[in-house]
Design a protein that fits this description.
This protein is of the alpha+beta class. It contains 20 helices and 28 strands.
Amino acid sequence: MTLTVSRREFLKVSTLLGGGLALEFSFPMLSRAAAGGPGTEVNAWIVIHPDERVVIRIARSEMGQGTFTALAQLVAEELDCDWSRVSAEFASPNENFRRNHVWGAMSTGGSRGVRTSQDYVRKAGASARQMLVTAAAEQWGVPVAECTVDRGVITHAASGRKLRYGQVATAAARIAPPKEVTLRDPKDWKIAGKPLHRLDIPDKVMGKPVFGVDVSLPGMLHASIAQCPVFGGKLVSVDASAAGKMRGVKRIVREDNFVAVVADSWWRADEALKKLVIQWDAGSYAHASNDTVTAMLQEGLAASDLPQARMMGDTATALKGAAKVVEAEYHAPYINHATLEPQTCTAWFKPEGFLDIWTSTQDGEASMIAAAAASGLPLEKIEVHKMMLGGGFGRRGGPQDFVTQGVLIAKALPGVPVKLMWSRSEDMRHGFYRPASIVRMKAGLDAQGHLVALHTKVACPSILKILRPAALPKNGVDPTAVRSFYDMPYAVPNQQVDYAMRNGHVPVGFWRAPGQQNAFYRECFIDELAAMAGQDPVAYRQSMLKEDDKNRLVLEAVARAAGWGTPLPSGMYRGVAVADGFDSFTATVAEVSVNAKGEPRVHRVVVAIDSGYVVNPDTCRAQAESNVIFGLGSILYQENNLKDGSIVESNFHDFRLPQISEMPQVETLLVPTGGFWGGHGEPAILALAPAVCNAIYQATGTRVRSLPLKHHDLLRHSSLGNEAGVT
């Protein structure tokens, strides 16, 4: 499926939609949206057509997580329209800028798509509903209070008169929005909270949506790119004598840190790229390796002047007086996002002085800002057309390197659209990786095995230092690096968390559930302590959580659902973990076996999650399943290694994705308690790795303190010799 549209056709259709916006997530949908004639913008979020079709504008990106539908449900709920007549479209980043950010934030990450925009999108729906009812009341000359509405039909019961939204939309648009609106109680929801069909699925099944890699414009050229193999390196020289003579090659573009070949097809561009003789200056990291990264992190742990992320009680004194002191060190590697759609950006410098961008982005405004910086054009002359994403996981949010590169390449060929697409190898070796980290934990237990003190040292790169330095706290503690420790829910009277920021040269970024490896460290260590105390892992956690703590509620819910304590088939073992994040609370039980070759298999995963409210139960369950299969790869085999300053892995042959045959049975228990709004895109991954590894200990007696599992000998059965250090 490709997008093929002339500029004339594009402007004609977008004008029909209002404001010259390229809004629909799938360009083939444009003709369908415009077929019934132009609609009326009642407010920025809602366009109503005469035939009762309701178009809801969505500011957040859709990358398979269901935000597109969930936000439409919230708006439609308060609007009280006919859901069968609802469609949705992306709001324009350019319009958002020109209209004083009327749609709010466009960043889609951190499981914020619904939880941080639910209030104002619901108010947009409620405001439009009140304006529509007011318009009908004025037309009838009756008090607004005498009118009711149901599924887009306004009724005046006393006279029996009815009007549909499409009949009063134009009049409603002229009415001043109400200053205050009352939102519906979730217990009265008719559209929100229901497992309604996702708006993007029918077209996806038919292959209609256009992703960034699908874009095709008249006269478009294609670019393939090569970047310095060592992060931070610079271009010295390029011999393009052979490549420049190859068929279809139009231009060789050179920048400080990349070279690109532009040709009339991507294959020709990439083949010509391979013929370039490029000399790079790798800089001071030319010999960096896994060992140098480990040494950097270990040096951080050894430092004595580290800033503290948490300080409660007197941890040092409590450890000295503890009946037993337990120490353990855990670590995890760098990991690429490995989105199935590689990084891509189509840029077109138009003769009129405008720049159009088509890209798969998690933040349309960030893409527009990056394009402005690279092009030198003001924001009002740049439009970013948000496409569907073939995977995001954080890679297409903060880092906008692909947009910057696409614009710089197209700038060399003004008047012609140029589509940059990275090769898979380039994508694997030039990511913004999940940080590698080492964590050292030292726990003090009393005579009964209760945890009375915990000193944690975290050595880890700072994502904020790389991507959002202005957001880094003055004390230098990146909250994503110390997640699950600085906010640990367990009632431990003495706690100290130290943070050693050690960044190195490998760029790090927001990988799905940033800091989630800390939940693996913490919850596996808690299991070690439970074993030391001779207590059941669930009971041990319960003893440190208050009865009304939501962490305890989800722990008890998942234990019941998984049948904790009941017999399992021979060779099957259970592990449990608790973790909260992104304003949600989760607990997971994994059922695992290890065969005679030492190969683990996850058979069943039970996840309990309390997100306060649930907008679409079906989507939330799908996200839990997505978290499991995404997280399973990082548990079993995924890692990115360094050699001579460069990432070793180049494709899915050495960075393995889980196969369908490895997918466990996933049971999701939604236990919303109300009163708050949590996310669903990431929380379910938090407790997965520790639940799996705790089950592996039950199966083998082997404590797993590093990932991935492919490096561990799971045939050893030593329940005593493999415990943490004890004094």
